Sequence to fold (158 residues):
Amino acid sequence: MQKIVDISLYKRIFIVMRQVIKKNLEVLVEMIDKMRSSNVDPLLKPQDEDTKNEYLRLMTAVFEEKLYADVQMDRETFASRMKLSRHSLNKIISSNTNGLSFPQWLNRIRIDIACDLLKNSPNKSIVKIAGEVGLTPDNLRRLFRQYFGITPSEYRNI
Fold:
């Protein structure tokens, strides 16, 4: 004898679960935004007095010259451009960011800028935003999942 399944029960469960997931995503995005705007952001608050001025010089160059948008930007290119050795570059970044490596530091800057673009430019495609911050769409998605546990689309839509 076959059991008859009440489809409407499954629909109600689905609707409730979707609402719970949406609420959880809203809370997560709120937490991400708080974290990004907090005063303890290691990217914005140099920690090492000996290398503080050099770190501020690096940050200024990255933002003013939009070096984060260069897909080909790597440690060697950046160090050469800033007239530093790789070792000096690593030391300056690491000592001012709680130990971030150059790629982690640059990707963190890219993700922060992408977050701003996702929230403030709703008509820009995610593909365009990825290009503007020096990432492929797949890399942007991967980094968003790595940092926040959600996709750029989910972040934008909350």
Q: What stands out?
A: The chain has a mean pLDDT of 84. The domain at 48-157 is CATH 1.10.10.60 (Arc Repressor Mutant, subunit A). DSSP finds eight helices and no strands in the chain.
